[in-house]
Specification:
Elements (H helix, E strand, L loop, with lengths): L1 E2 L7 H7 L33 H6 L1 H4 L14 H20 L19 H4 L7 E10 L19 E10 L2 H7 L2 E7 L5 H7 L4 E3 L2 H7 L7 E3 H8 L8 H16 L4 E8 L1 H16 L5 E7 L7 H10 L2 E7 L10 E4 L18 H9 L3 E2 L4 E5 L12 H5 L1 H10 L11 H14 L2
Parallel strand pairs: 4-7, 7-8, 8-9, 9-12, 10-11
Antiparallel strand pairs: 1-10, 2-3, 3-4, 5-6
């Protein structure tokens, strides 16, 4: 068993990720021309090319075979679908009211039916059916409520559910697709939840459904809190997701159907929890796929095993220069069978205080799903500095749009790389 370097959430990381206003709009950096995302000419985010291929093999593109043979080099149809789901997440950001002085702060600026059209992401063929909200479960001292309202905002709009209704799009996809899209961290209390990095057991209602073989599956405390907490005026995100999925299954359960859950940053973590919850709650659930961008770690190795047993397919889009994808906690490089809660951790070579920390607090995480690894440093159009810029959703969309393969990381350099290989090949004769 080999232990990777520690990556615990610490004040230095907070310094880079939380500005003085405590609020980040992950789309605002697009105003800087160095970070603007300009799609390459022959790609359209919502392209309808190769529609026959997608319709015929849609389960492969949803990850039934863990995207084998589609990631390196990146298949163009899969690229288009990844970008499409990224734009659904972008719509969640565009719809959120980031202005603390606004009376509608932390809500959606748009009516449910107009989220996609007013977010200017183009024609999708999907119709939003439900707003989703997340509630912070942190207990704060009473004096916090006497401060600015944006500091103590517990429940906030986090995303939406949209169902594909367009007949041509359904034909192109080969099934009716249901999207759940989550934005990333925005409010003060969401930031505090992110910092609760210790692992905690899944709630009884999920454990009871999964069964006793659940074997110590644990997830990050703050993410679970945002997913399961409720208030007097707002049901939990978990309740809203389950309610809407139940309605969708009742309405469309007799036709080819897929659930695609997508999110960025915090939204990626919530997407993973929601996917696990859907597969654990609904025995008749269709294929559930997660497309995540810049997501942090979510749970331990047993949680990963339970995800795999449930049939949940996860494609993590990771920028190797993005620190958020390296937190929280430790990662044990071990693909063996499940670890029990009593199994000792091999942390040889780490300082004594680190070993003590591992023993005293559950901080051992495991990466989940299949990974598409990209790098800002390989892109000739992106600034090579800035922790925040590496985590931007727009950066991720730009990298996906240009990625070719691990041997030729970016399309703009493809001809040069191919020419170099051709010259080397000629020289070997």
């Amino acid at each position: 068993m080999r232990t990777a370097a520690i990556a615990v959430t610490i004040p230095k990381l907070t310094h880079y990720t939380i500005p003085s206003s405590t609020i980040i709009n992950p789309l605002k950096l697009n105003e800087n021309s160095e970070f603007s995302w300009t799609p390459l000419k022959h790609d359209s985010v919502l392209t309808h090319s190769n529609s026959g291929k997608l319709a015929k093999h849609w389960m492969e593109y949803q990850g039934i075979n863990n995207w084998e043979g589609l990631l390196d080099p990146l298949d163009d149809v899969l690229r288009s679908e990844i970008l499409k789901y990224g734009r659904f997440v972008e719509a969640a950001y565009q719809s959120f009211d980031f202005d603390p002085s606004s009376p509608t702060y932390a809500t959606s600026k748009f009516h449910k039916n107009s989220i996609l059209t007013r977010s200017c992401i183009g024609e999708t063929g999907y119709k939003p059916t439900k707003h989703l909200r997340a509630t912070c479960g942190i207990q704060l001292p009473g004096w916090v409520d006497r401060g600015p309202s944006w500091v103590s905002t517990r429940s906030s709009w986090i995303g939406y559910v949209a169902v594909c209704q367009d007949k041509e799009e359904i034909a192109r996809l080969g099934r009716r697709d249901v999207v759940i899209a989550f934005r990333g961290t925005a409010t003060c209390l969401e930031w505090l939840e992110n910092l609760r990095a210790t692992l905690t057991c899944l709630p009884d209602d999920v454990v009871n459904v999964v069964g006793p073989e659940n074997g110590g599956a644990m997830v990050e405390s703050g993410f679970l809190s945002l997913y399961t907490s409720d208030s007097d005026t707002c049901p939990s995100l978990q309740h809203m997701v389950r309610e809407e999925i139940g309605t969708v299954l009742q309405t469309y359960g007799d036709e080819p159907l897929s659930f695609t859950i997508t999110g960025h940053s915090l939204g990626a973590a919530l997407a993973t929890l929601a996917a696990y919850d859907i597969n654990s709650t609904f025995s008749d659930a269709p294929m559930v796929t997660v497309i995540s961008f810049g997501g942090p770690r979510v749970g331990n190795q047993n949680f990963r095993c339970q995800l795999e047993k449930s049939g949940t397919k996860i494609l993590r889009i990771v920028n190797s220069d993005d620190l958020i994808t390296k937190v929280p906690g430790f990662v044990i490089d071990n693909d063996d069978t499940e670890m029990t809660s009593n199994q000792a951790l091999n942390v040889v070579g780490l300082p004594r205080w680190v070993r003590k920390r591992v023993e005293d607090a559950p901080l051992v995480y495991a990466d989940v799903g299949q990974e598409l690894r990209l790098s800002s440093k390989e892109c000739p159009y992106l600034c090579k500095e800035g922790v925040v810029s590496c985590h931007e959703l727009s950066t991720y969309l730009h990298l996906v749009n240009g990625f070719v393969s691990s041997n030729c990381p970016f399309r703009a350099t493809a001809m040069r790389v191919l020419y170099k290989h051709h010259r080397q090949k000629l020289g070997s004769y």
